Amino acid sequence: MKVLLVNGSPHQDGCTHTALRQLARGLEEQGIETVEQWIGTAPIKGCCACGNCRKTKRCDFGSDDGVNEMIERMQGCDGLVLGSPVHFAGITGALKCLLDRAFFAAGTTFALKPAACLVSARRAGTTAALEQLQKFPQFAQMPLVSSFYWPMVHGRMADEALLDEEGMDICYQLGLNMAWMLRSIDAGQAAGVMPLKSDSHRMTNFVR
Predict the structure, then answer these.
(1) What angle do CA 54, 95, 132 make, to 5 degrees?
(2) CB proximity list for 19: less than 8 A, separation 6 or greater
(3) Are 3 and 79 in contact (CB under 8 A)?
(4) Which pLDDT value is given to residue 63?
(5) What is the pLDDT of residues 60-72, one digit of tens each?
(6) Which residues in the chain come in under a pLDDT of 50?
(7) Beta carbons of 121 and 144 less than 8 angstroms apart
(8) CA triplet 172, 178, 179: central angle to 5 degrees?
């Protein structure tokens, strides 16, 4: 089994990466492979609502900026972890653009795969950013993994984040919980317990 870790920070080895590596330690100790995708510092365009992805399940708008890379990686992964630093009490703008396009283009690729989210901040804005981040897996029918507290770490630099002992423990337990959920799903499917699908998915507007 394999889990994709998306690092939404402009700093490749910063606090968010530090938190993701602590989570990955919990997964890897349970024999689950991890791969990290750093979104980089190059601009990522927002969704232009062209609608082409309805046919291709890929994003045709700026196809070399990591969006389709994430979709392709998820096709070979069993779980997803989203990590972001806090920018103005929200996730980074680049990560928001990437997730908007990836989840809209290929929601079925993510469906029913466990997901976890974590955020890092110097001081505040963590709960608002975490709530924003969790909306993406909730949109795509992804079981959301939790820890024994909200998954967040505090520190201005990576070495300061490591000093947040409780935050590091939360991330590590988040990895262990995701490993347990992945193995539980695998055992259930081996026993014949398969996902259930509704007969209909009706889309309506508030104004008709």
Answers:
(1) 90
(2) 83, 118, 120, 151, 153, 161, 167, 168, 171
(3) yes
(4) 62
(5) 886 689 999 999 9
(6) none
(7) no
(8) 90
